Amino acid sequence: MARGGKILADVKKTLAGMVKIGVSAQELEEKAVAMIAEAGAEPSFMKVPKYHWATCINVNAGIVHGIPTEELVFREGDLVSIDLGVYYQGFHTDSSLSVAINPTPEMAKFLEVGQLAMKKALAQAVAGNRVWDISQTIGETVKMAGYSPVRALVGHGVGRELHEEPMIPCLAIGDRDKSLLLENGMSLAIEVMYTAGKPDLVQAFDGWTITTRDGKISGLFEETVVVGGGKPRVLTTY
């Protein structure tokens, strides 16, 4: 998984650098496909039934599962979320990030909060903690800044399958002591999904794209991490 995570991190870094005015989501998709193949890996998302792309690209109100089309061309002020997975030697890794084109101060703050929530959540991925601790950290960081953690979507385990147990909500749900205990060596895809408005989401007519119901911007950050005894090992950062 470490090698697959490194491949993913390199692709993610390249795609983030391509987000400029006039560039299309399809161009990011084509670059991702080429880089993943060159590294001797496969796109995880193409193994999802009926999904035919290596990436999910969303803009502004779109939060997940956006199809990377030629028609989706980035414009000034857009917030672009990039999500992709890599399958290498029998294991998946999964990662996402949101970037903006010449963001306003308000949008820059919005993204900084997501990055902070991700950093704090990753620090909770140590043996002896519980999934609840990760979720609580994400939810509190987002809410303290005046934003809404998404309720309908979750992070997840990752490894032999792209989506495995446990589910990792973006806010604390239920009793901590009833939440799954984290053990050394567990591999998790921790996701920070949040909105500038209400957390309610809707599915677009394409059958894939999920957007905010109120049209407010949304953010997405995700890393694959291995739970450690004293310190987590993040596999997908660059």
TrEMBL record:
Its EC number is 3.4.11.18. GO terms for cellular component: cytosol. One of its GO terms (molecular function) is initiator methionyl aminopeptidase activity. Keywords: Aminopeptidase, Hydrolase, Metal-binding, Protease. It catalyses: Release of N-terminal amino acids, preferentially methionine, from peptides and arylamides. Its cofactor is Co(2+); Zn(2+); Mn(2+); Fe(2+). The keyword Calcium does not apply. One of its GO terms (biological process) is proteolysis. Residues 1-227 form the Peptidase M24 domain. Binds 2 divalent metal cations per subunit. Has a high-affinity and a low affinity metal-binding site. The true nature of the physiological cofactor is under debate. The enzyme is active with cobalt, zinc, manganese or divalent iron ions. The keyword Isomerase does not apply. Belongs to the peptidase M24A family. Removes the N-terminal methionine from nascent proteins. The N-terminal methionine is often cleaved when the second residue in the primary sequence is small and uncharged (Met-Ala-, Cys, Gly, Pro, Ser, Thr, or Val). Requires deformylation of the N(alpha)-formylated initiator methionine before it can be hydrolyzed. This is Methionine aminopeptidase. It comes from Candidatus Woesebacteria bacterium RIFOXYA1_FULL_43_9.
